[in-house]
Amino acid sequence: MGAKYQRVLLKLSGEALMGELSYGIDPAIVEKIAREITDVVAAGVEVAVVVGGGNIFRGVKGAAAGMDRATADYIGMISTVMNAMTLQDALERMGSPTRVQTAIEMKEIAEPYIRRRAIRHLEKGRIVIFGAGSGNPFFTTDTTAALRAAEINADVVFKATKVDGVYDCDPNENPQAKRFNSLTYSHVLAHDLKVMDSTAIALCKDNSIPIVIFNLTESGNIRRTVMGEPIGTTVGGSCEIS
User: Fold this and answer.
1) How many domains are contained in the chain?
2) Is residue 2 part of a domain?
């Protein structure tokens, strides 16, 4: 079976790189993610990645502790570059050509973000990892994922999390919680469902980019989503509960 999507934007949270650690990066988890991405690229799919930095520093928490919000967000952006470089190293050790592009110029270690260059890398089969968020404070890496997906004409945004989709209530508190197979953008916005922040959802809605929320911790799920298997929750269709 061929891939359902040709060009995908994978959003990884910084927390996804921690594994069971309370802080930092678990090399085994990074290697697992890199192996799954490499497998997808080998199938002919173009993959771009936006990675968060919450495993190292989160701007909102820094601001809550008394830091200037813009300064805290810039520190958070630098954290995402550390994660991007770590993922790049794991991918290249597996033989996958990879480029890190940053929204804040760091020319000694990464390329600056240039839309046309990013698209060209993807067309040549290289994995592109976008670091430093959007380069602006007050915007999340979820918003960056939606923005970059629109800029590179991605077919879909994959939001990789530690849960298997979006529920009508907290499944940890209510064992009767039901998972949505699909949701409309409007439903997500109207009910303030914590899929991605509202700016990211609105960007995807305006550009008709579907969002698939799935469980990253289950091996093989990145490939399954690329192939179009019905796992997780898709935002962009009708409201349907499993």
Assistant:
1) 1
2) no
